[in-house]
Amino acid sequence: MFIWGIVLLVVWFLCSAALASFLSSAPEAPPFAQTFLMSGFFGGLFFLLGLIFFVIGLVAELRARAFDREDRRRSIALTQAIGQLLNRSRSEAYASDGSLTHVSGATVIEVDRHFDQDTQGQVLTTINTTTRTFGVTHSSQSGTAVHGTGGMGTSSVAQSNYYGSSTGVTDSTSRTTGTEESVLSQTTRANLMGDALFSVFETTDASGQRDTIRAISLSRPAAEGVIRDLVGAVCYRVGGPETHSGGAVWAYVENVVAQFAPGDISYVTDRLKAIHSRPIGEREPVAIAGMVMGRNALLVTSLSINGAARLETYPARFPEMLAQALSAATTAPLAAADPRAAIGAGR
Q: Same domain, yes or no, for 301 and 331?
């Protein structure tokens, strides 16, 4: 629109100047400036449209340049913020911030694992077409000829008669037939390194009564998906991958996933199944930290067996860490997302 405004203004100026020059060359004509104003008045529609297009385009161009400068500045700030986030210790994402529920001295009584599954399928369709044509043609023709001669010396007669007929019949039949065959193939593969954990523990509550705790843990691919979605939400919050800011955030998504994704989920499941296979009196106590998902149900963030080192299963503090790192680089503070919404949606 900015270019069209300039074009219309140039056309208006050239036409007005040419007409003013022609009129001012006549005898006793008014001066050039006066004829130029008169010529410009008659072409005022082009001038008005050109001026409107020019102003609108100029304002849009100024806004675009200002947005681009701010976008580039913010992309640099976001890149630095993500760099600082990646320099933080991985264990910070699994540390307790006071909002987690802790259960100690629990005895495992049930363990089950669920593998992530990926289903791929295809449909193959084959169409066979046959065309058949059949035709018959019949024709007939007949004729007769008679020649006669009279007695010698008296008279002579010659007669010829020919009759012919021709008939034809043509019959043609065309038929097209087709068959269609569809074959559906489907393959389901289980990710043997993508197992989610479902387990039940028995413990003693504050009053000394026995109680049960249901402990669940996302699979590693599901936990990585939560991290990837949170970073992607920030990317679109600052303009999307097409902008400098969004592209700077999205460029580091895999680095962030590799830094903070849990690596002990499958090992925890193996250890718990090994403990569960022993008699109940020989089973080691388990300490659990997790987020409350319902009555006596926890999303396990970390777990310790018999007082050993903590095993990390879900980075509960990652949303808070991401918000703290990036909020300073954006115009508005980012709220720490609650991962339980994604878990409830089936992750």
A: yes
96: which residues sit within 8 A by CB, 6+ positions away?
A: 102, 289, 301
d(CA 285, CA 93): 24
Q: How far is CA 236 from the centre of its chain?
A: 13
Contacts 24+ apart (CB under 8 A), 11-16: 11/46, 11/50, 12/40, 12/43, 12/46, 12/47, 12/50, 15/39, 15/43, 15/46, 16/40, 16/43
- Burial string for 51-75 (b: 16+ CB within 10 Å, else e) reads eebbeebeeeeeeeeeeeeebeebb
Q: What is the CATH number of the domain that holds 290?
A: 2.40.50.140
Q: Is the pTM of this model over 0.85?
A: no
User: Could you state, in chain order, the average pLDDT of each consecutive group of 10 residues for the chain (347 residues)?
Assistant: 63 63 61 60 62 69 75 84 88 84 89 75 70 56 50 48 49 61 70 79 85 89 90 85 85 91 89 90 90 88 90 90 79 42 38
Query: Closest Cα partner for 340 from 201, 212, 220, 218?
Result: 218
How many domains does one find in the chain? Answer: 2
Q: And the tokens for 188?
A: 């389901």
